[in-house]
Amino acid sequence: MIPISTHSTKPDVVQIYRAAVSDMEAVAAVLRDAFLEFKSLYTEAAYAETTPDLDTLRRRLAEGPIWVARLRGKIVGTISAVKKPNGIYVRSTAVLPSARGNRIAKMLLEEVESFAVSCRAERLCLRTTPFLHAAIHLYEDFGFRRTSEPPHDLFKTPLFTMEKKLQAP
To answer: pLDDT, tens digit, for every residue of 96-112?
Structure first.
């Protein structure tokens, strides 16, 4: 498989790929391991939705693209996108704790933004929880801003929406 993009993070190279069905087990592991430290802050149902199982991820692959980031040959990050009438919905952004600090989440966001521009979308949107401070900071640095759009919870775990307006091509 040929990477969509390659980024050097000295001395390592991060490669971004469109995920295949065969990657879904690794994607599930990244989501589970990336959110494990926050598990106690989610309701059980919200955590299950945030860390979907293999079957759910396989179904999601049919809903829109999923990308993975490889570092030293191992999948260490993921992000996915779904086309919606009002833009591209970004979901399941995660990077393994051991791979954080390599700008991988930013690279994944750049991949989704490129996809959105190619789809002529006017905005990106995502939902996050108020306790994911590092993620919120990343999203804000990337140009996302909070909105008042619902929903405001995910199975009783607090939630808010963020959006990034895109330039018309």
So the answer is: 999 998 899 999 999 99
